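TL;DR need structure tokens for one chain.
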Amino acid sequence: MELHELVEIVDDQNSFLAFVEVLKKDREDSVRKEKLNPSNPYSSESNGWENGTIESFLGAAHAWAIDSDFGASQDLAEANMWKKMAVFLYCGKIYE
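>> reply
TL;DR here they are.
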């Protein structure tokens, strides 16, 4: 299952932790790929990672939370907190 599909089914502690594990493995895979074949500095890293440092990752997640009212503008207002936190972390990867 793709990471963007997995985030959609997070609904409790166990599914959140499973999502975090897959996100971690996705980042490890991206780092490995980047060492072997670095991406153009003007494009995303391997596996679609837009934010390759902890600072940029957290900054992007924070920016998404502010810009979307923590997902309220993306139909997440009624979502449980586990899913909101999974989306928050996923947006750390992809949000520019």
